[in-house]
Write a structure and sequence with these properties.
Layout: E1 2-8, E2 17-23, E3 26-32, H1 50-55, E4 64-67, E5 70-73, H2 76-94, E6 99-103, H3 111-124, E7 129-131, H4 138-148, E8 156-157, E9 164-168, H5 172-175, H6 185-194, E10 198-202, H7 208-211, E11 215-217, H8 224-237, E12 247-248, H9 250-257, H10 266-269, H11 273-285, E13 290-293, H12 295-298, H13 303-316, E14 326-327, H14 369-374, E15 383-387, H15 391-394, H16 398-407, E16 410-414, E17 427-429, E18 450-453, H17 469-481, H18 487-502, H19 515-522, H20 527-538, H21 554-559, E19 564-568, E20 584-585, H22 589-599, E21 609-612, H23 628-631, E22 639-641, H24 643-649, E23 656-660, E24 665-672, E25 680-682, H25 697-701, E26 728-736
Parallel strand pairs: 6-7, 6-15, 9-10, 9-13, 10-11, 12-20, 15-16, 16-17, 21-25, 22-24
Antiparallel strand pairs: 1-2, 2-3, 4-5, 4-17, 8-14, 18-19, 21-26, 22-25, 23-24, 23-26
Helix pairs in contact: 2-17, 3-17, 4-13, 8-11, 8-13, 17-18, 18-20
Amino acid sequence: MTTMSIRTCPLCEATCGLELTIEDGSVKVIRGDKEDVFSHGFICPKGTTLGRLHEDPDRLRAPLIKKNSEFVEVSWDEAIAAAGAGLRAIIDAHGASATAAYVGNPNVHNLAGSLYLRPLLKALGSPNVFSASTVDQMPKHVSCGAMFGSPDLIPVPDIDRTDYLLMLGADPYESNGSLATAPDWPGRMAAIQERGGKIVTVDPRKSKTAKASDEHLFIRPGTDAAWVAALITTVLEAGDVELPDFMIGLADAKEALAGFTAESVAAATTIPAETTRRIAVEFATAPSAVAYGRMGTHTTEYGTLASWLVDLLNAVTGNLDSPGGAMFPMAAIVTPQAAPGGRGFQTGRYRSRVGGHPEVRGEMPSAALVEEIQTPGEGQVRALLVVGGNPARSIPDSERVEAALDQLEFMVAVDVYLTETARHADVVLPPPSVLERSHFDVAFTSLMVRNTANYSPPTFEKPDDHPAEWEILLALTAAIQGNDLPVAHMDEAGAAALLAKALTNPASPAFGTDQVVAWDEVSRFTGPQRILDIRLRTGPYGDGFGTNPDGLSLQKLIDNPHGIDLGPLEPRLPLASNNPDGQVHLAPSEFVADLPRLAAILDTPSTPFVLVGRRQLRSNNSWMHNVEVLVKGKERCTLMMNPADADVLGVDPGGSVTVTSEAGQVDAPVELSEDIMPGVVSLPHGWGHDDPEARLTVAARRPGVNSNVLSNRTDIDPLSGNARLNGIPVELALVSSHRAG
């Protein structure tokens, strides 16, 4: 029997529509869904592997408990009880601060993780919450929080209408886009050029994205913020800039940035002053333009400053909240606002025990996890809950991370694999496979370059004896709290509270609806589907339980499996501002105060070599390396190096180099390429699958090396707590060479 399943790919931020051909309960073919309203049939190699992930023999099908140092399969009741008892024992003996949680990137790619983690973390009650955000995008959350009042109000490049795209530290040809959700970046970039626009990519490596651009500029890693500051100064020097009244602080920004000129940053960035001035003029005079900075700019010592300055450049050139510029999506599930203004955003409401790091969005820097486990004293972390994460490979100073995980008294992992992290756990709770879950992109609908909404029901029914992921998370919540409430009861209570709050929002189409009537409507669903239905129906496009018959509901998305197009991005300021004064703050004081630290790099001699990461189309952090079709072929975990540097060291292709930083040392095979600037070397992130106790059969055959052995846990951006994964000073030494003689 052959059937078709339409669903959104959950493996990266692009949210591509897929068409799955199912024969006799197995996935036979996966193609791009040509009718998808957003992706129009685009697909990348990762999207073709959902069937292989579902069928992977290494994927865990039952919970595990470690007994006598060996994992054994147990019932779900036993596993949940053991997880709750172990965590409660630490809390009872040492307090909630003796526990910690690490939340991995996969949670933003699935519905249950997006909706049910908050009550779980609240039940744990610990201030020690860590996540992949602080090895990725936290600078953007902090800069947007300070400028716009909300860390989740993030402007994205309106690439479908722009005339000039300036990209820094981004490689969407490989990453499929990040903090800017758009299927088929290559096609969208080509469309810019076809309509006469220009694309400039600034990167220490001439990536595939750079090669497809009209112009590529090499830049010294870690200096992006200084270069963008010089662009802004050049624009402001050229004449008066008129901005809307709700954008305040321009004069303060101009004064603070005055020292960053095209000439003053030239030596540090390696970009000539005349080039900087030309790009500034081109950007400012284009009919529309947008600057977009991503991983290469965020994962540096100055990530928050770089993020702020990118949006400031968009603002001072009239390209913030303007078609073709940087715009704010209107997600289908966002809470509508009746007027500008709100609680605003702040950091540092409390600090970490050991390093004194300020809290950001309720989190501590992931780089600080090790010191919280290894430093004795009151509040020392003794138990860890990891949900969908692999900190043993994903956060800095990895060798010490492994030692710290071994030191824990108790650990629980929620993961579909026994990863390099999960293998340290006492209890492992595996969710169902990706094809046994429903899907809606809670996070990425707020980052889409065109407003759309897609919902995917499960392709396969999960086994009857296997709880859904949301049930696992709620059961664990109850177990930590020590209550015996049924999961269904807890879920109903949470959904009812959400509904009651939504019906009292004057800006919602459902405002004033009788709660009993509304509850009857949403009660056809359970779990995350019910929560999603509430948020859709009370959101900006919602049906309001009948007040807007053509509006959205979960049933409407089910009836439209290829998605619903909600239209292009539209200006949202000042209404969207969540600052208490309802304005946009162009020169937040904490950013201005940090500029002297950035200015210091203009006079600091550069080190001989610096290390950067790189994205790869067939990878997503450490996720995708256990799928044979994605890792076969030539070695991809290589140290990319310019031939001129290799010649000095006496190494050629096939040789190996020892890379040493303050944090550690690795030996890596060399890949020579003119595409990387001299003085810079590159290793991809997420490899190092050499742990014999992990159960990743395919990954173990091609382990690669772990670049995070080289990143220093003490080297973070002070404004956001984000780790420095790019621009790491390193020393190189020849291990071996294939040269004759």
